[in-house]
Amino acid sequence: MAEWSDDSPAARLRKIALLSQELPVLLRRALVDFRLSGDSGVVVGGLPLADADLGTSPPVTATPPQRDELARADAMLLLIASFLGYPVSQAGVDDGRLIRDISPKPGHETTQLGSSSSGELMWHNEDAYHPLRPDWICLLCLRNPDSTATSFVPITEVPIEEPTRSLLFQPRFRIEPDSSNVSSTAVAEPPAVAVLAGDRSRPFVRLDPAFMIRDAADGEACDALETVIKAVDDRLQDVRLAPGEILIIDNLRSVHGRRAFQARYDGRDRWLRVVHAAADLRRSEGFRTGDHGRAVLADVGLVQR
Ligand SMILES: [Fe+2]
């Protein structure tokens, strides 16, 4: 059993969870309001960042830079994520790192990866295929020279009429792992899941159109899927983050993506840092790995959520 004086990654996370109670009262109040209200997203601004101290945007540097300014940004991200829930990662994504960089990468321009640029990143729920997908995504903007928009919409703002609505509550949809998760690309046919779940008037949503199987044998489900995709497209909003702003996305109540932009590859590119948070660690007990113990395995069988 690790002691509190232990400086292992797992022990550091425990300390961060305690320290999150020391966040400024106004910020804690805003986060509690956000969490209890069931709002789909919020922007927290005002994190002081000195651009000159950040170094160059990845991937010009071979590895993410280690600087005091970035350490402060990471601490703020982890504190906020720890106040909402428990920071978690995916074991198959970026070696299970808890804090990940998002910036354009040469060769990825038109892929459906966070490192794409000239191609729009289709909106989605994060890790939609995964039964233990994160509850919240905390996106900290370090640099955004062209005010590139994060696309976003709460599912409650998307009109979904009957009979499409009822059909989306039925487990008739299959979602494949997205291509960022290297350890889950060979998984057998994904299980059938519902797009909408929970409270029928304020449902949770599970969509990733770029990785959803269209089964011609179930025309009704295909039609319902295309209907909701178009409805989301029509309501999609743009959130243009500025440096020092953190967008907190409720991953069960909203979808997000990114508009197209032109990468520079000059060390000044758009650069975000991201931490995921889970509301409950018990659901993933026995399915996590990593030296911090928070990297959720890609294949967790039929754990339901
Ligand atoms: Fe995403």
Automatic annotation (TrEMBL):
List the GO molecular function terms. iron ion binding; oxidoreductase activity
Keywords attached to this Swiss-Prot or TrEMBL record, sorted alphabetically, are:
Iron, Metal-binding, Oxidoreductase
Known InterPro entries for this protein? Clavaminate_syn-like, TauD-like_sf, TauD/TfdA-like
Amino-acid positions noted as binding Fe cation in the UniProt annotation, renumbered to this chain: 124, 126, 256
TauD/TfdA-like domain residues: 215-275
Would I find Metal-binding among this entry's keywords? Answer: yes
What stretches pass through the bilayer?
none
Q: Which Pfam families match?
A: TauD
Q: Does the keyword Iron apply?
A: yes
Please give the family membership noted in the entry.
Belongs to the clavaminate synthase family.
What name has this protein been given in UniProt? Answer: TauD/TfdA-like domain-containing protein
Q: Which organism is it from?
A: Paractinoplanes tereljensis
